[in-house]
Amino acid sequence: MSKLLFSYSSISKKKSIKLLLISIIITSIFISIQPFEINNVRAHSPLADPIEIFSIWNDTAPLIDGQINFNETHPATEWNMAAVYNMYDDLQNIRAKLLLQNDNDHLYIGLDITAHITEDPVTEWGSSVYLDLNHNGIVDSSDRAIVFRNFSVTESVKFQYWNSISSSWEDLESSTPGTIFPSYDIIMNTYFGSSGLVTEPHRQYEYKIGLSELDLAPQDLVGVLFEATNKETSRSGSFTWPYIDSSFLDTTFREKPYSWGDLRLGHEFTYEAFVIEDNFNIKDGQVGENYGTFLATGDIDGDSELELIVSSNKTDASANYLLAIYKYVSGEITQIWNSWTAAYITVPFIVKGIATYDFDGNGEDEIFICGDDPRVIRLFDWSPSESDFLDQDTVFSNSVDLSGYIDIDDGLNYWTGDKQIVVGDVIGRVHFIDYSYTINKKFAYVGYIIPDDVDGTEPVTYIHDVEIGDMDNETDYQEVIILSQFSSNGSTALHIYEFYIDSYYDNPTYWASYHEDDLFENSSKLTYDYYGHTIIIDDVDNDGEKETIIVGRDYLKIFGPFTFSQTEPPLEIAINDGISNPNMGGGAGVIDLDDDGDKELIVGCNNGTIIVYEVIDSDSDPLIEDLSLNEEWILVPVLVKEIPY
């Protein structure tokens, strides 16, 4: 079972799919919130949450009176069908909400500033919308801003453009709240009082912008910055989307579109319907920057349908470790089990690695978990009547902590269908745990291997990922593929091992008749990346040949079974801008997400966005991989029903 290492979640943009208006659910492994460069998104914020947001199409226009009458259960209420996103203060606390919708003629923007509870601050206050209309990541004369400011009793709304000569925002026209601009189809208004999200009186803003004024059409993508502040001069008390960190305490972020996010306008045929669901966080309040998750799939209840298993690397207030299972029930994704309410199960550590397999043969996959702890723990004996596991045990206990990476398959090449558990640890060892299917039905430790030095100078010090798979499509032998750290600078290398009779052999390309993995001597050089953390062996391009996918800090790389000897991988996707150098990049998964019979490549961006791709091989020759991408979905977070302060 391939690991799924995702980012937040979820609105899909695939046609004819009913959208789910849900809150942030799954975050990238080791989030560091860095830019994701793909297609035409090239310059915008590494801090956007998500980097791309949607203005949902809806032909019911809100009244621009400043008051956000959002109500998720009453269709007649304005803003009820809007997409809802988080706005942040400069400490990245969620303190406000951004609402977006359009009717193909106008863009509607609502800023529900739930933390601004003073009606008239003594300093200058207001809100702004900044638009990088040509989406080029720099501010130039094509860009526009709508700025409202109130100082004492003086109020003004200004429609502005960027003057490249004076390097400043200049007025095109002025207005006042509630009054449409004389020459432009733009109106803004503000209100102080309760809203549909928070009953305590607070400041709210609404905008209506004619798309023709911005030369925009449905499905267009622009750079955006939304801001509200109650102390304009120092930006103290300011809330923004995207989140702007404390290094921007002055106002220069308004002149730097690379720190903004991206807005795509919804379209009536793509965003024709969606359902507001319950909060789909793994647990309320347990998401945020650097709170990543690990995921896996498995048939936990034995009904031949896969469930999604999700963990969080944050604990709740009671120090409970968070693990949950989701199932697609009656058209909705539903949480069917979690560790903090389980009656019989105790999760004793933060879960980083998850694998599933039916070792006891009862038709139900068992869950195997590990983390920064010496143990591998099994959850099993699922009870449909109680919706709970009835038992758990420790299948392996190491002398030192494990690294949190686990896989299950026939790494010992028994050829009998029997599988083993393989895990890595923090001192560079890869351990094998076998299972006795016929005698006592117990797990037994087999032993470990230590990957060889790759560069010939430094020993392996840490195991970053392990995967068992037939990476070269031999069908007879499976390889154990390892990503290891061998020096203190964080760079990782690829190791390929095959087990034959009683020993493991490293990259035995000189064996002509068997154990051929088609790697040349220095093949790991191609896969060098910092903090490599994911290996997937799967047929990602649906051509009958398995590919090897390797994910590190900077790149996702896809190799064909006969392409490791090439100077470049057949397909490489940048998942980091290479400037900020986070500890990890995004995650990835391969799964038939939409049940169309073809697998998709899921790339989890560490800024909160998930991109779902179709990978296409244009050459039928199995020795040649001519790979390209077709974007299918973009998944982003939207509604959070409760306002966490």
How would you characterize this protein structure?
With 645 residues, the protein is mainly beta. 0% of the residues lie in helices and 41% in strands. It has strands at 19-21, 52-57, 83-88, 94-102, 106-113, 125-132, 144-151, 154-163, 168-175, 186-193, 202-210, 221-229, 239-241, 261-265, 274-276, 293-298, 307-315, 321-329, 332-338, 353-357, 366-370, 375-383, 388-397, 402-409, 420-425, 430-435, 443-449, 462-469, 479-485, 491-500, 503-506, 529-530, 534-538, 547-551, 555-559, 571-574, 587-591, 600-604, 610-617, 627-635. Strands 2, 3, 4, 5, 6, 7, 8, 9, 10, 11, 12, 13 and 14 form a 13-stranded mixed beta sheet that branches. Strands 28, 29, 30, 31 and 32 form a five-stranded antiparallel beta sheet that branches.
Put simply, the count of helices is: 0
- The tally of beta strands, per DSSP, is 40
Coarse shape: elongated
Average residue-wise pLDDT: 77
**Can you tell me the residue ranges where pLDDT is under 50 for at least 5 consecutive residues?**
1-43, 269-280, 509-518, 636-645
Classify the helix fraction into a percent range.
under 10%
For the sheet with most strands, the description reads: 13 strands, mixed
| Straight-line N-to-C gap | 39 Å
The radius of gyration computed from the alpha-carbon positions, rounded to a whole number of angstroms, is 26 Å
Structural class: mainly beta
How is this structure best summarized?
With 645 residues, this protein is mainly beta.
List the helices and strands and how they pair.
Layout: E1 19-21, E2 52-57, E3 83-88, E4 94-102, E5 106-113, E6 125-132, E7 144-151, E8 154-163, E9 168-175, E10 186-193, E11 202-210, E12 221-229, E13 239-241, E14 261-265, E15 274-276, E16 293-298, E17 307-315, E18 321-329, E19 332-338, E20 353-357, E21 366-370, E22 375-383, E23 388-397, E24 402-409, E25 420-425, E26 430-435, E27 443-449, E28 462-469, E29 479-485, E30 491-500, E31 503-506, E32 529-530, E33 534-538, E34 547-551, E35 555-559, E36 571-574, E37 587-591, E38 600-604, E39 610-617, E40 627-635
Parallel strand pairs: 1-15, 2-4, 2-14
Antiparallel strand pairs: 3-4, 4-5, 5-11, 6-7, 6-12, 7-8, 8-9, 10-11, 12-13, 12-14, 16-17, 17-18, 18-19, 20-21, 21-22, 22-23, 24-25, 25-26, 26-27, 28-29, 29-30, 30-31, 30-32, 33-34, 34-35, 35-36, 37-38, 38-39, 39-40
